[in-house]
Write a structure and sequence with these properties.
Distance between the termini: 27 Å
Number of helices: 19
Bound molecules: 5-amino-5-deoxy-1-O-phosphono-D-mannitol
CATH architecture of the largest domain: 3-Layer(aba) Sandwich
Low-confidence stretches: 6-11
Number of strands: 26
Number of domains: 3
CATH class of the largest domain: Alpha Beta
CATH superfamily of the largest domain: Glucose-6-phosphate isomerase like protein, domain 1
Strand content: 15-25%
């Protein structure tokens, strides 16, 4: 039984589908807008209305919307897709949906078909011609070929084809010859089926397009195919064709407000400002400062494993990897367990030494990052216990891991991860402290002090957000810089990496994060009067050392922007700008110091005219390797 984190029950493209008694178009277009964070280089829809109408366009969903304004958009069965290109450049031709050779079938696909080239070659010898460069078009031709040559029903042809393909997919197919049929299937890429109360069914990559229509959803498991025909849904296993009896219908408790901008100009800013609440939510019900107790249902059953663990290996990508780096410091500092932090993409392709005494912690906002999922599979096959830290309820990680904890940060829509990071770090701090207690490595009074301090973090984040006006000034000053360097030591080194990543991904300014002392082993050569250097220089064990690093930068005319603890005078005298954050424990500085760095990248990106929610070339969750 998959863990689903024991207490309750997200790449590339976004897909939606509708079959019911009303026009599908409004659901499809609004759904695609909700899913646009997953990919936005082209979009398309297919609608059945006696004939199969397919409309697709390179660019944003809004461009598709304009394109179809004078077209026939009627039809009670339809599918839609917003794309992040894997095979083929983003243009009209490669946009989904794709159609079969005979023009009767339309498909949308999120994922990647790895063996598409050999299938395509075989189909070409049979006379198939292709009008795109995509793996998806190959898949629908393959299904058509099986249907016609094996003389089987469409459903069976889909199933047989899926048994032949290698890779990941969430697909939806409609057919001109079957006006009451929609087929969907998944392996490796997420898919949710919404069950309407008027006989209608909705499908989507995540639940956000569905909640306005129904709160009853079924998360398809890997290798399941959903056949929706004549107001009936049947779910079967792709391998053995067995029907799933009584599929579990979950009640969504997402609020619509949580997936809308709520008065903010964009999701990223909203999510930055949500952090006092999201950090609180990630701790809610988990700690009791008064008596120093902690509970996390997902952890209970595996506490003994943590107590006896010889080693913790953390696998993650991007920002989640940075949270993992903070966790390395936390677990070693407090619980005294050796920790290795691995890029999931590297871990999965080397031959790592992992065994039954190891605990692997997989961290992911989306719960769908392909490399992280593959790293989990590998570690599992070597006998390690896998603990997931994930934000999206119902995603793959909670299903694949032995146990885990949700971060409860709420939906994160902006591509740049903000509130998910601070929630991950909060949860990891809680766990590290708890395990330290279980291993007898921390005194009760210290534990209570740390738990008490954690409880003050939401209000301290609120205070940190008050630097926004100052940060706007700093952004104005440095928005045209070509490069940035971010420096930090100890707990602040991962913060430097995260600050640099945030700036790169949304403003397209080159930025490097470095351990402050490591700077003199190379990057110092880059420093001149044009180089802004952001230094996280808060009070604590490394303060004096970082002061020396600032002097080294200053001696080379570097421009210092320092994040300091409230009331700092020494660095104020040395830096061009200082941004103050409230005092806290060393180990909790990442939760506060990250906030001004998020705001700095945000304002610089906005001043440079960048789309912060949908930066170029990126997708919210990377479900292909
Ligand atoms: O969903 P995940 O946390 O697994 O995603 C990992 C990275 O793709 C993600 O953190 C990415 O680096 C963000 N865009 C950073 O803001």
């Amino acid at each position: 039984m998959p863990s689903q984190f024991n207490f309750f029950i997200f790449l590339m493209c976004g897909i939606v589908g509708y079959i019911g008694g009303r026009d599908a178009y409004p659901f499809l277009i609004n759904g695609l807008k909700r899913l646009e964070y997953r990919g936005y280089d082209s979009a398309g829809i297919a609608l059945l209305n006696n004939t199969l109408n397919v409309y697709k366009k390179a660019g944003k969903v809004s461009e598709l919307e304009e394109f179809v304004a004078d077209k026939d958009i009627h039809g009670t069965v339809g599918i839609g897709h917003t794309r992040w290109a894997t095979h083929g450049e983003p243009n009209d031709r490669n946009a989904h949906p794709h159609i079969s050779q005979d023009g009767t079938l339309a498909i949308i696909h999120n994922g990647i078909i790895e063996n598409y080239a050999s299938i395509k070659e075989a189909l070409i010898t049979k006379g198939h011609t292709f009008s795109s460069d995509t793996d998806t078009e190959v898949l629908i031709h393959f299904i058509e070929d099986i249907r016609d040559n094996a003389k089987v029903e469409l459903e069976e042809a889909v199933r047989l084809a899926l048994n032949e393909v290698v890779g990941a997919y969430a697909i939806a197919i409609i057919s001109k010859n079957h006006p009451n049929l929609l087929i969907a299937a998944r392996k490796g890429s997420p898919l949710v089926v919404g069950v309407g109360n008027d006989g209608a069914y909705f499908i989507a990559s995540d639940a956000t397009p569905i909640i306005e229509y129904t709160r009853n959803v079924i998360y398809l498991e890997d290798r399941e195919i959903a056949v929706i025909q004549d107001q009936k849904l049947v779910i079967k296993n792709i391998n053995d064709n067995k029907v799933k009896k009584n599929p579990y219908i979950e009640k969504l408790n997402l609020s619509i407000e949580s997936i809308e901008k709520g008065g903010f100009e964009n999701f990223m800013l909203k999510e930055i400002y949500e952090q006092p609440r999201s950090i609180l939510d990630s701790m809610r019900g988990r700690i009791n400062t008064k008596n120093g107790t902690f509970q996390m249902s997902g952890l209970r059953e595996y506490e003994h494993k943590f107590i006896n663990a010889k080693r913790i290996i953390i696998v993650a990508c991007g920002t989640s990897w940075h949270a993992g780096l903070v966790a390395e410091y936390l677990f070693e500092d407090f619980a005294r367990i050796p920790v290795e932090v691995e890029y999931a993409s590297e871990f999965r392709y080397r031959n790592p030494v992992v065994g039954e005494d190891d605990i692997v912690i997989a961290i992911s906002q989306s719960g769908e990052t392909a490399d992280t999922l593959a790293a989990i599979e590998l570690a599992k096959s070597k006998g390690a216990m896998i603990f997931g830290i994930c934000n999206v309820v119902g995603s793959s990680i909670p299903r694949m891991t032995h146990a885990g904890a949700y971060t409860h940060a709420g939906p994160e829509i902006g591509v740049a991860s903000t509130k998910a990071f601070t929630a991950q770090v909060t949860v990891l701090t809680l766990i590290a402290l708890h395990i330290a207690q279980l291993r007898g490595k921390i005194a009760d009074k210290d534990l209570r002090r740390f738990f008490g301090e954690l409880e003050t973090i939401p209000s301290k984040v609120e205070k940190a957000l008050l630097s926004n006006d100052l940060i706007i000034k700093i952004a104005e000053h440095f928005k045209d810089a070509q490069n940035f360097l971010y420096l930090g030591r100890g707990y602040c080194f991962p913060v430097a990496l995260e600050g640099a990543l945030k700036l790169k991904e949304i403003s397209y300014i080159h930025a490097e994060g470095y351990p402050a002392a490591e700077m003199k082993h190379g990057p110092i050569a880059l420093i001149d009067e044009n180089m802004p250097v952001v230094v996280i220089a808060t009070e604590g064990a490394n303060y004096e050392k970082v002061v020396s690093n600032i002097q080294e930068v200053k001696a080379r005319k570097g421009r210092i922007i320092a994040i300091v603890s409230e009331g700092d005078v020494k660095i104020k005298a040395m830096a061009e700008y200082v941004i103050e954050i409230p005092h806290t424990e060393d180990c909790m500085v990442p939760l506060l110091a990250t906030i001004p760095l998020q705001l700095l990248s945000y304002h610089i990106a906005i001043m440079r005219g960048c789309n912060v929610d949908q930066p170029r070339n990126l997708a919210k969750s990377v479900t292909v390797e």
